[in-house]
Amino acid sequence: MSDQVNNAIGVLVMSYGTPESLEDVETYYTHIRRGNPPSAAQLEDLTSRYRSIVGGVFPLRENTNIQVAALQRTLDELAGEGAYICYQGLKHAAPYIEDGVAAMAADGIKNAIGIVLTPQYSIMSVGGYMKRAQEEASKQGIAFKSVQEYHLHPELIDALSKRVTEGLDRFGEQRADALVLFSAHSLPAKILEMNDPYSDQLLATSRAIAEAAGVEKWQFTWQSAGQTGQPWLGPDILETLTRLSEEGVKNVLVTPVGFVSDHLEVLYDIDIEARKLSEEHGIRLERIRMLNDDPQYMAALAASVLGLAHGGTNE
């Protein structure tokens, strides 16, 4: 292995993962359920959701590849080619988090930084990713540090505030009456007993975006809760939209502040399910463009990695 690779810092870019085809949905779902296969009804429900998205295209898989490549280019531009080498690690699909760390070790990487494509920290989400990465890094003899959050990075806030302004402009003469509805993936309600920062960080991100975009009419809601038989954070976006219709709200701009790319929770849960309910209640629902590989988002990720590499704190 060349000295250049040995001296490079590995960057493990982590995300939730998605199946690569309809045939992979069962394996993917079983992994999410910790090895317990889904029932036939559960499998059909998830498969049908993927099938509804442009005939079953799996955008998150491709979008993650694009994001990792864009982060690599950004780091090359800022730090010089070869200083950082990006690897990918997914929570519920190949290459798994452990695979990404093992790939680093095989390349001779000795120092690595992990970052998750989720701006806000929760022990159940980002914390879980980092725990798996750290455990594998220790086995592989890699010194590993992790970016815990970047939910208020100026580039992130600016990129999202521009999208909110652009989205509101679509309402034309009704722009002033539109309500911005920030949303994020729900988590089990027990995190509230753990002093978990997830909820507070999501509200902080939402507030910062609203201030930057000059928005006064905004609310926050949850979405995409799991069906586990235990309470999840609420209210759900469908409940919120029903309430807003009862309050006479006619125009809503959904801003999925906890998501960074086009995937199932955006393309189905918002664009299909929430939009259908909105239409039934006489609400015009629009959604902001997702960040995907937006240069400002890449700048926020790169700055977080570089800051930690140069002695900054894990934030």
TrEMBL record:
* MF terms (GO), sorted A to Z: ferrochelatase activity; metal ion binding
> Which pathway?
Porphyrin-containing compound metabolism; protoheme biosynthesis
- GO CC annotation terms, alphabetical: cytoplasm
| Pfam families membership | Ferrochelatase
Q: What is its main location?
A: cytoplasm
What Gene Ontology terms for biological process does this UniProt record contain? heme biosynthetic process
The UniProt annotation places Fe-coproporphyrin III binding at 16, 33, 49-50, 129
Give the reaction(s) catalysed: Fe-coproporphyrin III + 2 H(+) = coproporphyrin III + Fe(2+)
- Which positions are annotated as binding Fe(2+)? 185, 265
- EC identifiers of the protein: 4.99.1.9
Annotated compartments: Cytoplasm
InterPro entries referenced in this protein's UniProt entry, alphabetically: Ferrochelatase, Ferrochelatase_AS, Ferrochelatase_C, Ferrochelatase_N
User: What are the protein's UniProt keywords?
Assistant: Cytoplasm, Heme biosynthesis, Iron, Lyase, Metal-binding, Porphyrin biosynthesis
- What job does this protein perform? Involved in coproporphyrin-dependent heme b biosynthesis. Catalyzes the insertion of ferrous iron into coproporphyrin III to form Fe-coproporphyrin III.
Concerning its family, UniProt says: Belongs to the ferrochelatase family.
Name this polypeptide is given: Coproporphyrin III ferrochelatase
Source organism of this protein record: Cohnella abietis
